[in-house]
Amino acid sequence: MNAGVVGTLRKLIGEDWVLDNLEQTKGYLYDQTEELIRPRAAEDSIVVKPGNTKEVSEILKYANEVKIPIVPRGGGTGLCGAAIPTKSSIILSDERLNKTIEVDELNLMVTCDAGVTLAALLEKLKEYDNLFFPVHPGDEGAHIGGMVVQNAGGAKAVRHGIMRNHIKGLEVVFPTGEITNLGGKLIKNNSGLDLLHLMIGSEGILGIVTKVILKLYPEPKYSGTLLVSFNNREDAIAVVPQILQRGIIPLAIEYMERDVALESAEHIGAKWPAVDGSVDVIIILSEDKEDTLYEKSEEIVEICDSNNAVYTSIAESAREQNTILAVRSNVYTAVKHNAVDGLDMAVPIGSIPDFMREIFRLADRYGAKTPSVGHAGDGNIHNFIMRENGEIPPYYEELKEEMYKTAVKYGGTITAEHGIGKTRVPNLALQLSHKEIELIKAIKKAFDPNGILNPGTVVNIE
Ligand SMILES: Cc1cc2nc3c(=O)[nH]c(=O)nc-3n(C[C@H](O)[C@H](O)[C@H](O)COP(=O)(O)OP(=O)(O)OC[C@H]3O[C@@H](n4cnc5c(N)ncnc54)[C@H](O)[C@@H]3O)c2cc1C
């Protein structure tokens, strides 16, 4: 990167907060999809770490004037290459925007700086009697700003939905350096087009999020985690719509094949409690009354038994429940070394059994190993396409495309929660029409006429 640019940025935010040495910057060149997008042409990118919104604004204003790409970066836990620069860029890390976590008990809301980690928010909420924030992607190192622009989901979406359902306000800096507040602590707000919701899921291509207002909830008193095992995938998947059709809305319904459960348990040094069966379903319940928790658990066990369950247990202590959730959350980190890609498709709940059957048939046709886990209660399954003898198999692109087409055929999506980022840009047209893609490009241009923000993400405008 040009020495003049580095010098100007150092004047704007201070000597210590501009990194231009590859040794220091290389950790900022990747997210968790490092295999699929390589930042080779971006190795002379620099990293800036503004300490407040005004500094973010000054950096953007300057970059927009000299037309240098800005790649926003949160915790770097993304799974679609969205935070990876593909050309010489200014990587804007929000890690120093992490000072504010203001809990407003009266309105049941919290205001966070964008660089606050999910772990820090959850830790802060422990200071309060029973306050709860429900969105939990598997890596608590994710920043709240990153979770906003990726519209993160996670395990607990069955009852509480995804980030979009809990974001009330945002402070955003646009590429011109203008600072804007969108939304606020309101229940209703119908003024104009909803720019707040346009920012949610925008993957860093429209503006930089610097502050976030989130909704909080009273935490139900009783929780229990059912672990139910089956001898085959079909029986395991079949219980998901049946539980929901009964009107039982658990916090989470997770599907996990035993091989990956064991690999993940070993990876984190835990013991997986189930022995019989080859596929597990985890159902997390959370209720205000103990009796209700037991009644619902019994109903679920009945449904599972009628679908040939071979093992059932209920974990009630926080320690046992946390172990089960930790094993599920760490599947990705455990299998990553041998996985080419972790897909993120979703279909309407009622179609999951048929969709999964077709997906497994496709994998068999290609002779591919595709161990699977997923937020089955949201219709969202992660199928991993694995390496063969350490290499990306020749069928990878074709199998992936066939799987995406199958999801779309069932009225589904090619990505439920991880995002398009840079890895799925070539596949977007499998789901969206030409008109939709043209509208996305026009919106991007309206926010960012010089195209400086996160080029090559979601859509290509060249
Ligand atoms: C083990 C593991 C499990 C996971 N499980 C889930 C899961 O269950 N559900 C789920 O949804 N996700 C999951 N993820 C993915 C990831 O945690 C989420 O996508 C998360 O929202 C990314 O946040 P981040 O701060 O790490 O963002 P980054 O990866 O740093 O960035 C993601 C995108 O956001 C942009 N960005 C970051 N900060 C800002 C900002 N302040 N302003 C504007 N743009 C910004 C970046 O440019 C990039 O486009 C998992 C990841 C891992 C590693």
TrEMBL record:
Domain FAD-binding PCMH-type, chain residue ranges per copy: 40-219
InterPro entries reported for this sequence: FAD-bd_oxidored_4_C, FAD-bd_PCMH, FAD-bd_PCMH-like_sf, FAD-bd_PCMH_sub2, FAD-linked_Oxase-like_C, FAD-linked_OxidoTrans_Type4, Oxid_FAD_bind_N, Vanillyl_alc_oxidase_C-sub2
Protein's UniProt keywords contain Oxidoreductase: yes
Family matches, as Pfam families: FAD-oxidase_C (PF02913), FAD_binding_4 (PF01565)
Gene3D superfamilies: 3.30.465.10, 3.30.70.2740, Vanillyl-alcohol Oxidase, Chain A, domain 4
Cofactor(s) required for function per UniProt: FAD
KW Oxidoreductase (keyword) present: yes
Protein name: Glycolate oxidase
